[in-house]
Fold this sequence. Notes:
The structure holds 2 protein chains of 2 kinds. Chain A has helices at 25-79, 260-264, and strands spanning 100-102, 108-113, 119-121, 132-134, 146-150, 156-164, 168-171, 185-197, 202-207, 213-218, 220-228, 233-240, 251-258. Chain A is of the alpha+beta class. Chain A has one domain (62-264). In chain A, strands 1, 2, 3, 4, 5, 6, 7, 8, 9 and 10 form a 10-stranded antiparallel sheet that branches. Chain A has a 3-stranded antiparallel sheet with strand order 11-12-13, with helices on one face. By secondary structure, chain B is an alpha+beta fold. Chain B has one domain (2-183). Chain B has a 5-stranded antiparallel sheet. Chain B starts with a helix and ends with a strand. The relative contact order of chain B is 0.19. Chains A and B meet through α1 and α2 of A and α1 and β5 of B.
Amino acid sequence: MKHAPSCPSYPSPSFVSFVSPGFTLLELLIATAIMTTVGCAFVSLILSAQSIARTQPEAADQQQRARMAVQALAGDVARAGGGLDRGANAGPLARYLPALEVAPDGSVTVRYLSRRSAQATLTAGLPRGETAVAVDAGGGFAAGSSALVFDRTGCRDLVRVTDVTETLLVVGAAPRTCAYAAGASIAEAEARTYRVDPVARQLQRRDESTGSTLPMLDGVSRMQVEVLDGARRVRISLQLAPGGSRGLRELGVSFDVMVPNLWLS
Amino acid sequence: MVSIGLGMSLALLGTAETSLAGHDRDARALRYASRAAASLAVSELRRLPSVRDVGRAGPMAEVSATPETFVDATLTPRGPWGGGALDLRALTSRIQAEADAAAGAAASHPVWRLFVYGSLADLVPDAGVPAYLVVWVADDGGIVLVRAAAFGPGESRALTELSLAAAEDSDAGAGLKVLVVRPDP
């Protein structure tokens, strides 16, 4: 250990006053604790931000896909029951057949006529096995489209139009439930069923005329359809449960759709 | 730096999501506006002593001979969302072309004419959404067709189409009956 010179004519060297006295153990402990706390908070912030950054694009994507699926479903439900413009059976489709059917499993089937230019009246009877349909205005139909044949007795059949002339429609040979008399109606139509496949956890849309099924939205565990206000309003609730995605929570989506053509009936 | 990067990417994502949600909300509002325009047109058609002339041309070929009272002073009004002018003549041609294309080879090709056109704010001052309403009518062999559109920002639009039939023994507007409503045809 060095000592300052003891000569009384010289004061203690000035550098002595700059020597740090050091930290006490308590100060060091407090400083360490503060640094550890701040560090932990910072790491936690980064980890949570990383987690959000990982899941947020998926959540945003799922919300956008849900919007598109909801728009398609709501659009079809809103069109349910749209019927003929002209002819003896003009008016809402619900007068002649169920335009919107809700099954106990939560699925919903909608039926509506899709184009006002593709509507005709049968000018001759249509036996069950016959594929040539004599009509008064076939020009607006398109080959390959779906059409609904129906009459006032409640009989209905979805057929596939394969060929078109002004006075004759050729339809697929699929078996039909009824024979139709002259005066029955035929029109381009859509009949679609929306249901949730519980195994695939997927909202699907089935085209009833072709039997084809189209996936609409993944990660759907349940759909509930309620018909309210005397069929004026339909409430659809979807339970979105994204499987296999960490950090995404279950989400319930519920929306109301006005069904104007059901009011008219 | 990592935090700043993550924060910025989240902010951008949030902005995109907000924008998508905003478009979705506006589209819904426009759909409601188009239905309101269709209802207005039907109520006005029902006031007419006769609907025989609604499909005929007035002094301007694009406008019905019996236009509704809710019509703008010009056929090139400014979009209420602050955008450029709407050309109602061009829109009428477009609606006609769309209807003709949808009709395909059908014998009937009705001619569409302007019946209602004005800003939603003039009808409902606190509507909240800047929309311009246009309703066209056409006569399709005794069936009165109504096509109501609500135009919004970013060339967005919503359509509602209706078919109405007059009473068998009279062409008075009061006897009009709605046969079909086609939301977003």
